[in-house]
Design goal:
2 domains, 305 residues, eight-stranded mixed sheet, 11 helices, alpha/beta, Rossmann fold, 6-phosphogluconate dehydrogenase C-terminal fold
Chain lengths: 305, 305
């Protein structure tokens, strides 16, 4: 089962492994892709996949994403010098006390959750050596989930946000930064509060808006019948993100409540502006606003990647 | 310049031409595609392109989309037995009195505007023979515009809505229906009010929501700096439609004001529901709503095309 030498001969790899044993808790799209990339870059000698689902771990093993599968957490966590928590966000908070009771004092711990405040607080509250924890969030993903969808270049040319605190050990931060840079990411540092505000606006808000839009069309369709079938490409593209995992978005909403509510308020205010302009037939105002939005989006396309 | 025989030898074409001379007013993506499709299907002997822009008409001629270009409206309109108004919506209302003063009494007139109430009212008010007018709206389009982007199969497997009134001549309706069916559309009949309500929900509302979302992120970015650059794929896909033409959307907002305001109200109500659930930390409620939205969108994907 040990595939530790698989990555060695590949060109353009990092010279030295960063870790001996990497434990990935939750081997799905993100965890699996990080394992693949770390192996391909020669960053690690051995990868242990840990999780509740034996079947999923078996697939990860068959795909060569991990070297060893462990449903025995005790053994899996104890041996690792680097632990990546890659379950859905709620799971990360839930697992931290367990990880804390099992991990070595010098083990590095990081996560990939899209909410940072509550995770980092829980990590620093529970871990025996909080300085060895660095919160992380790679801004990468696809519509698909699961280890089958994972691929080594998922993080190439993407941003990864790290959220160290005043308690974070600078050397731990440096090592985690090297990990993400080695797999192709540009690393950006932020405090947790700022991270959650930013994501509240650019990621969590759009999801809530897409859900609300689908809900609106659904309700109108129920009331008036046969309305939704006239939806064209725009609507369907627009609402693609409303097909995301319900449990995941429930947890993000609960865990980033304050920042998300603020973003929703701000959006409702923008919507009201448009509504007022439509209501009073303000053609020039609408055209100005639309033109500005078009320009903003064009700028975003240039800078977002 | 006469290319009237170009379409004849093609396979699987309609046996008989429906029209002698088709005048397309506004030879852009929609008008150009309809011209191409009508020619390919052998539905017409001669296509006159009419418009303000000499350069655009020249390109349409060079591309073989039209046989003749006319900036002299008088001559262009007088000769046609079928006139398609394919300018932006506001232009259609504006042009109708002019068309009315030039067209033959037996000429069929139709349009492709995405708002129907105000256009059909103006057509029936101004045209010498209102029974020969049938409002139309092909639910088709791409991100691109202009005659260069036009192609004959744009309407294949798409729905086209026709909005006859009690004044519409049944034979006129039948001919226009044949035209759209011959180019691959499924024709659906609706009254203008219903059309404008449906489009208010499934098309115009999503655009306003996308604009408001871009505006929100823009405003937050202006306030807090460097926030928008963390936008990921979801946000960018989501807001693609906020790159549409500002003038076009200004006019749609003004021309479909009532139905759009109702849709915006309804959306604001849905958004409030989500906001309340987030605010009171209602996990099960959020999960139920998200699950229902996901199911709704999956159903839409099946029925929308």
């Amino acid at each position: 089962m040990n595939r530790s030498n698989l990555g060695k001969g590949l060109p353009e790899q990092a010279a030295k492994p960063l870790f001996q044993t990497l434990a990935v808790v939750g081997v799905g799209l993100i965890g699996g892709s990080l394992a693949r990339a770390a192996r391909e870059r020669g960053l690690v000698s051995r990868i242990i996949g840990i999780g509740r689902g034996r079947e999923n771990l078996r697939r990860a093993l068959d795909l060569g994403v991990i070297d060893v599968m462990e449903t025995d957490w005790d053994r899996g966590i104890r041996d690792a010098d680097m632990i990546v928590l890659a379950t859905p966000v709620h799971g990360i908070v839930h697992l931290l006390p367990k990880i804390a009771s099992l991990c070595g004092r010098e083990a590095l711990v990081t996560d990939v959750g899209s909410v940072k405040g509550s995770i980092v607080r829980e990590a620093e509250r529970t871990l025996p050596n909080p300085g060895r924890f660095v919160g992380g969030h790679p801004i990468a993903g696809t519509e698909h989930s699961g280890v089958e969808a994972s691929f080594a270049s998922l993080f190439a040319d993407r941003k990864t946000i790290l959220t160290p605190t005043e308690r974070t050990d600078p050397e731990a931060l440096e090592t985690i930064r090297k990990l993400w840079e080695a797999v192709g990411s540009t690393v950006v540092l932020m405090d947790t509060e700022r991270h959650d505000r930013v994501m509240g606006f650019v990621s969590h808000l759009p999801h809530i808006v897409a859900y609300a839009l689908v809900h609106t069309v659904y309700s109108a369709d129920q009331r008036e019948g046969n309305l939704a079938r006239f939806s064209a490409g725009g609507f369907l593209d627009f609402t693609r993100i409303a097909s995301s995992h319900p449990e995941m978005w429930r947890d993000i909403c609960l865990m980033n409540r304050e920042a998300l509510l603020e973003a929703v308020e701000s959006f409702a205010h923008s919507l009201d502006k448009f509504k007022e302009m439509i209501s009073r037939g303000d053609g020039p105002g609408l055209e100005d606003h639309f033109t500005q939005c078009r320009r903003t989006r064009a700028d975003l396309l240039k800078t977002a990647r």
